[in-house]
Structure prediction request, 487 residues.
Amino acid sequence: MSGVRKTFGATIALDEVDLAVRSGEVCALVGQNGAGKSTLMAILAGATRPDAGRMTLDGRPYSPKDPLEARRAGVAMIYQELSLAPHLSVMENIALGIEPSHFGLIDRARVRQTAVDALRQLGHPEISVDALVAGLSPASQQLVEIARALAMQCRVLVFDEPTSSLGVEDATTLFELIGRLKQQGLAIAYISHFLEEVKRVSDRFVVLRDGRNAGEGATAGTPAAEIATMMIGRALDDLYPRRPRTVGEPVLDVKDVMPGGATFTLHRGEVLGIAGLLGAGRTQLLRALFGLEPVRRGTVRLGVHAGRCTPHDRWQQGMGMLSEDRAGEGLAPGLSVGDNMTLAHLGDTGRGAFIVPAMQDAAARRWIDALGIRTRGPRQIVAALSGGNQQKVAFARLLHESVDVLVLDEPTRGIDVGSKAQIYALVDELVGRSKAIVLVSSYFPELLAVSDRIAVMSRGRLGRALPASEWTEHSLLMEASDARTAS
Prediction:
């Protein structure tokens, strides 16, 4: 890809961007949210047409009119949100769009053999080609998506944040698979916000910043801090800011709550981290605390409030939740940035029963500026923003509501390193203002740096909260994976 340019109205998304990936190479494409990575890959995958620039594939001109033409040319993209048909079988998904036929009828035997061959090439023949995709784990669904790309004889494979929904073991399996695909001669572009992943899986990296090339190099010889500096345009002095904290009175008291058998007390001015692997039950516990799921046993007391509650009750009582499922629960994607930020608290956006657009815009702009959200303005539809900027909008709603207890489920998932630093600074500032925070994260360095105490959830049970200083990444992983019990 050479000199690629793309504008959306007055916004320049890509400005003379170059990218080259060789056969048998993994090239990481990194940059902050809004840097242009998704737009560049959408052009490569045929979903968006560039305004200028040229592309070649194996030295020949390449200009796909749509994603199907791109796939037929050998370019496939594995999106963060998988594009599978859950009601169809594994083999039907793998052959979708390239179904072999005979006299106008689909040849089911060849469909089956195509799927079997693709899964065998991946090294996962154990996946049943007759199983419904809806019944598979996220990791297995991702393998089906990759198998579909291989069935179409792809030569260029793009991974967009592939580990965002995977646990540690599944992510390790994916990295091993990418290594095998590289050995088979595929050219692989890998997009990730996790620099440790980039260091682990890629041979070379290319940095985009503000729609332009900002640097590149061999991954092995470049420190992660140097890559981060290229991404944000300045040295990142302190990723985890932390001022002195004063722990205050209890605000949330949880006793023997199912799911999780959770017992803990949360105080003003502290962050309680909850560690665990995918499927451990952390999200179910947070949903029960916020009233999204019933408390089957035990008690939850928020201030003076106890007993059954709804999410609306929790908002009124001073608790806000940031959902892990940004697209499904965290936002109203068809509404504007301003609507998403202010709908939970409209008190300062109008007069009486009426919303005054200018007042709503002013309230939204305050959070747009505070969080550095890349948007055309408060009235832009939130679905048009990048994933990381959507996450900031969801976070802004909690800040606008000015709740006392924040329940954060994977708050930095899908956010670049510069934006993470902003979120960490906000968390630190909120705790300094006597807010109380429950933070669930699969990223253990984040928990260790931000939390005051950490409890580990394993197999649906929450352990005792200990000071963060008593934990290490190794001990958290051992506890979360039940390795202590196994040994």
The radius of gyration is 24 Å.
